[in-house]
Design goal:
Layout: E1 26-28, E2 33-37, E3 39-40, E4 43-44, E5 46-47, E6 54-55, E7 60-64, E8 70-73, E9 78-88, E10 94-102, H1 122-131, E11 156-160, H2 170-177, H3 179-193, E12 197-203, H4 207-216, E13 223-228, H5 237-245, E14 258-262, H6 263-275, E15 281-287, E16 295-300, H7 305-311, E17 322-326, E18 333-335, E19 348-353, H8 368-372, H9 379-387, H10 391-396, H11 407-411, H12 418-431
Parallel strand pairs: 1-16, 11-12, 11-14, 12-13, 15-19
Antiparallel strand pairs: 2-10, 3-4, 5-7, 6-9, 7-8, 9-10, 15-16, 17-18, 17-19
Amino acid sequence: MFKKSSGTLIREHSGHKGLSENSPIVEFLKPNFVYFPLMENNCPYESLVNVGDKVKVGQLISIKSGRFPSFTHSSVSGEVISIDKKMWHPSGKMVPTIEIKNDLQETMFEEIKDNDVSNLSSKDIINIVKNCGVVGLGGACFPTYVKYNPDNNINTIIINAAECEPYITADYVTMINNVNELIRGISYIMKANNASRGVIAVKKYHTELVEHLQKSLANINNISLFLLDNVYPAGWEKYIVQRVQKKTYKGLPAEVGAVVNNVQTAVSVCQAVEKNMPLIEKIITFTGKGLKEPKNVRVKIGSLVNEIIDFIGGYIDDLEDAYLIAGGPMTGNAIVFDNMIAAKMLGSVIVMPKEKQEVELPCMGCGKCTEICPVFLSPILIKNAYDDKDVEKIIKLDANRCMACGLCSYVCPSRIELTDIVTRAKTLANKK
Ligand code: SF4
Ligand code: SF4
């Protein structure tokens, strides 16, 4: 999927981020049509609108019921013109959608209005975050309110600002341009959880960003920076939490008194708490050598990726065959078609020209995959066990601890897709 190196240590200083990092954010806020998936993370959403209904910006249009309800709001005003039309989703699957034709009037839903934040309790903040459909924008897309609880002994809110994977710069430009919303968002998350400390974990090499954050936090004594090393995957949640809290844990960060949110999630919390504004826009990185002008783009959620790519200048002229990746190069999904929805979970789109046919070779026993695995697995042994369908061995090799970071595939000189195979081995073992 991605051009591989034969190095064993991924020490990313720039990580191709310069392609989009310094361009101003452009806005794609007038799509003619928007599409809202009726399926996210394999969970169905129920449409609350019918064909022919008129909707407003920020109006609730679908709901996922069950243990952790989640909500979707229209990002435009206009008319619902179809329900159940199948469209490509960033997960790589076709999903049913609600299709809305934009009337370009930007008529706002009446509920979107300023809140008196001084009077909001922890529970009020959690309810607002829930009702505004805020989800984790680091890729997981899990409803954010589920992590919050003022009675959970949380002492620290950690913002994972590592943006670890190469190429992606959406969080970087968000922090440069929206730092005050980020800081206010952290303070609301602290209040929601009764936490006394906020921490922004950012990589050291972003010296300008570090200075910008330090300056912005100068008069704020309960939010500080935590500087991470310039290695991948220093942005792995467990790595950050264990360093900030100086404690190890097995399951969730709450076990050691922490809640972790992504940068854009905290900004969305701020907009929800202050204006009752649902999650209807986000910044997505469009980058890679296959694009004429890589950029960070503020989009209406539900827009189509191919229209956004046309808007920012399109593909390079001599682009023939290319890899289109939804998400980062290490953990994203290879996508076949570019008419894909810019859904809440989409953080970046990378277009890479195919330089040559990459043929998988037999394992040469170099041991690089085992050497680099951050959770000390042996991917090649797991692959061998998977090839033999030896479930007992897969369990013994602890494949379940794989966090799908992609490093083993990245370093393998034989171009073996170890991450995919370890993931399949986990699924096989978990079926038992
Ligand atoms: S993808 Fe899994 S097995 Fe491969 S290096 Fe990362 S954690 Fe280890
Ligand atoms: S799979 Fe084999 S060739 Fe590839 S990194 Fe592991 S030991 Fe080396």
